[in-house]
Amino acid sequence: MSHKEPTELLTIQQACCLINVHPNTLRNWERKGRISALRIGSRHDRRYRLAELLGLLSSKVETVETYPSFAAGPQKAKASDFTQLRPETVFALIARYCISLSQAAELTGYHEDYLGQTARLGELKAIKIGRHWITLRSSLEEFCRAHARPYPHKRP
User: Fold this and answer.
1) Of 65, 76, 110, 113, which sits most exposed with the smallest number of CB within 10 A?
2) Do the beta carbons of residue 10 and residue 17 sit within 8 Å?
3) Domain boundaries, position 28
4) Are residues 62 and 95 in the same domain?
5) pLDDT in tens for each of the 156 residues of the chain?
6) What is the CA radius of gyration of the chain?
7) Whether 51 and 96 share a structural domain
8) What is the pLDDT of residue 155?
9) Nearest to 7 by CA among 83, 81, 93, 133
10) Cβ neighbours of residue 118 closer than 8 Å, sequence gap 6 or more
11) Where residue 15 sits, what CATH number does that domain have?
């Protein structure tokens, strides 16, 4: 029986590799309500949403930036430290699922400053990495559907 799953859903092994935690950690977070998992199939296998995992990553990065002592503590980096991702994993995920706001502005016709403002206000789900904002392609599509009427910020 062939079953095509949406690409935004990750198995528990894929999710663990992405955020560099043990599978039991994800199961504990699910029990505590910190993350939700979809159950599919007759075995009720867990599937995690990519957007939710990226949200966990961004919240962990904000914690490290807000509290530098967390990153530079006397202890060694633990497996649950989300900042220790392999660069190739991060770049592959960004290239496949994410888009910068400057690219989004070219695709949608909205001005880049307007998209940045909506990201800061939380209307467009996006995270800031360094000086650049990135968003999921699905979040951009959702934003464009919700703001389908003409805006003064839209390019002619």
Assistant:
1) 76
2) no
3) 7-69
4) no
5) 445 544 578 888 888 877 778 899 889 888 988 888 999 989 989 998 888 887 777 665 444 344 344 344 334 444 444 456 666 676 677 777 788 899 999 988 889 999 999 999 989 988 887 788 888 888 898 898 888 755 555 555
6) 18
7) no
8) 54
9) 93
10) 124, 143
11) 1.10.1660.10
Q: CA-to-CA distance for 2 and 154, rounded, in angstroms?
A: 43
Both 16 and 64 in one domain: the answer is yes
The pTM score is 0.42
Reading the block at residue 67, the tokens are 């509290």
Q: How far apart are CA 12 and CA 45, in angstroms?
A: 9
In the chain, the number of structural domains is 2
Q: Is residue 11 part of a domain?
A: yes
| 76 occurs within a structural domain | no
Name the strands in the sheet holding 132-136, side by side, starting at the edge strand that comes first in the sequence. 98-100, 132-136, 126-129
Does the residue 31 lie in any domain?
A: yes
Same domain, 15 and 61: yes
Q: How far is CA 125 from the centre of its chain?
A: 9
Share of the chain residues as helix, strand and coil, in percent rounded to the nearest 5: 50, 15, 30
Helix (H, G, I), strand (E, B) or coil at 80: coil
